[in-house]
Amino acid sequence: MSLRFLTFCLLASALLFSCGEKKECPGFSDNLVPYMPQENRLVFHNSAGDSLIFNTSIYERIGPHTEKQNVLSVGGSGSKPYCVSYCKMQSSFNELQKQEIYYKINVDNEALTCTLSVNLNSSIPSIDYFLNSTAYSSEGRLFGDTLKLGTYNTTTAPRFSRIEIVYGRGITRIQDDVKKCLWVR
Questions:
Q1: Is residue 8 a part of any domain in this protein?
Q2: What number of other Cβ atoms are within 10 A of residue 111's Cβ?
Q3: Quick one: DSSP state of residue 30?
Q4: Any domain includes 3
Q5: CA–CA distance, 168 with 27 (Å, rounded to integer)
Q6: Total structural domains in the chain?
Q7: pLDDT of 168
Q8: What CA–CA distance (Å, rounded) separates 77 from 13?
Q9: Does the residue 10 lie in any domain?
Q10: Is the separation of the CB atoms in 109 and 80 below 8 Å?
Q11: Of residues 70, 87, 79, the one with CA closest to residue 29
Q12: pLDDT one-digit tens code per residue, 149-178
């Protein structure tokens, strides 16, 4: 391989990766954090004194960041930068109690929408999904003081049929249809 060819390849690569549109994207909005306070453990109790525990191993909140044009997209023209931010909390499968949680608030800064979703999985064959979307604003309580959700588009008979999320406290209630109880924290 000649030195000229190698130099040409290096210059072409540098030019290819340095070109393209960049966009500064905001981080996850402070007004949404109270719907998902950072916690390592969510503990719920029912009227019989039993506990439902989710040990969260991941809490991630996206800060301000730069999105770049994807020059490697099909055709090489590159897709324009697109701003999205989110906050998520999730647990690993709890071997003792056989359940896990995946809780995410996603902000689409381009479409100006905000989506809150919660997945609850358990050893009782059920994957229970809760969803709510609203127009995005960086001010105020987008989902109100208390958000009550029923399962969304379930594929199985749900174990958990309703949840309640309170601003400043996160998930506070889970209705359990299999054990026929309300889990509260």
A1: no
A2: 11
A3: G
A4: no
A5: 19
A6: 1
A7: 95
A8: 15
A9: no
A10: no
A11: 87
A12: 988 766 567 788 899 999 999 999 999 998
pTM of whole model > 0.90? no
In the structure encoding, which two tokens stand for residue 4, read together? 């000229």
pLDDT of residue 147: 93
Query: What's the rounded Cα separation, in Å, for the pair 48 and 43?
Result: 14
Q: Are residues 41 and 56 in contact, defined by beta-carbon separation less than 8 angstroms?
A: yes
Closest among 4, 85, 91 to 53, alpha carbons compared: 91
Encoded tokens for 106: 């996603």
Domain region containing 120: 21-184
What residue has token string 């949404």?
32
45-84 confidence digits (pLDDT tens)? 999 999 998 888 899 999 999 988 766 555 555 678 889 9
Q: What does the block give as tokens for 101?
A: 């949680």
Q: Which two tokens stand for residue 120?
A: 């609850």
Q: How many residues does the chain have?
A: 185
Name the amino acid, one letter, at 9: C
Got the DSSP string for 81-147? Answer: P--EEEEEEEE---TTT-EEEEEEEEEETTTTEEEEEEEEEETTTEEEEEEEEEE--SSS-TT-SEE
Helix then strand then coil, in percent of the chain rounded to 5, is 10, 45, 40
Cα–Cα distance, 121 to 99 (Å, whole number):
5
Residues 120, 98: Cα–Cα separation, whole Å: 11
Q: Which helix (DSSP H) or strand (DSSP E) does residue 9 occupy? A: helix 3-18
- Residue 45 lies inside a defined structural domain of this protein: yes
